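FW: tagging you since you asked about this chain on Friday. Here's the raw sequence from the shared folder, copied in full. Didn't touch anything.
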Amino acid sequence: MSTPRLDRRTFLRAGLAAGVVCAGAGARPARMARAAAGDLDFASALEAAGAIQAGRVSSVELTTRMLDRIARLNPKLNAIVALGADGALARARAADEARARRESWGRFHGVPITIKDTFEVAGLTTTAGAPSLRTHVPTRDAAVVARLKGAGAVVLGKTNVPIFASDWQSYNAVYGQTNNPWDVARTPGGSTGGGAAALAAGLSYLEPGSDLAGSIRIPAHFCGIYGHKPTLDVVPMRGHIPPPPGIAATPPSTLPVAGPLARSAADLLAALEVLGGPEGDDATRPRRWRRPSRPCGRRGRGSRKAGPPGSTSRSSTTPTSRCSTRGSRRPCAKTSSRACASSRPTRTARISPATRGRSPPPTRICRPSRRAGAPRAGSGRPTSGPTTLS
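HL: got it, structure written out here
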């Protein structure tokens, strides 16, 4: 069997091709990393955390990507008003180094987030939209900020609010007006308008907000994202303005509550598990607590069982989409998030002799409201941002 002849030209051509392949191999990871970060522009916070944990993207790459998008898109929105780019990149590098040592900081390890400008962040100007606080730079994080940092989050900056979070739009004399990313001629709502606009535009993955009369729910509705107003005293309000800095919240100031805004319901649950729990000496440690054993699920024809976010299992055992109290029917309150009501079992519920005379435990039935205007939350993760920003 004859050996094929290898002339000089064939040898050089093969060597050149091999050199090109080797040179491209070194550049490919950087291109792939940039593409991976771009694919996560509108991902949920948990998806971003999963990508970092799996090594598909680094926290530095994701943080850099968010800072680039902020520089390009935020001028039209004015959603993020106090940026801490250097601190964010330093923390992102620390998160990547911790991951290289196989350490995990928590549910949101290395995920870039923003903070409503009513929560104090150490080293970042916190004004609550008030000119009198234009130079206020806290030395201590608010409780919700400390807990999110304890869960591994990377703080990019602060988002705009109306003065003292007291309006359903987001304008103040310090930073000006925030615009809705779906139509910059319209408002994103308030008072967490800057945070809702940043999430809808793909400039952040999570935002802690506060709510008394719709400050989480209205911006979530206007911008087509998810928001949750928890029960009173579930999330500590230390470090929130109002009241003025350094003054503990006392009645009636304790009526507002803190809660998360995000691009998925699963993110809301994960954030609430981090944020919830009583304030104490260990407030910086993420708290683990259980949600109700019967979480609210969609009810209606063929009604859906309560289950984890994304569950589509159905059952015919819950025949009504309205709250029932002793057989009566009354509609649930309609808000931009799921509105729940506690009710007692209907007349058809069986009560055993052993429990006769006792008050049966309340059941939780809710009906999610329909959204109008902005794209409906829950319709799937968008593959691109608002067209008004392109």
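FW: The mean pLDDT is 77.
HL: agreed, and Residues 59 and 110 are 5 Å apart (CA to CA).
FW: great, closing this out.
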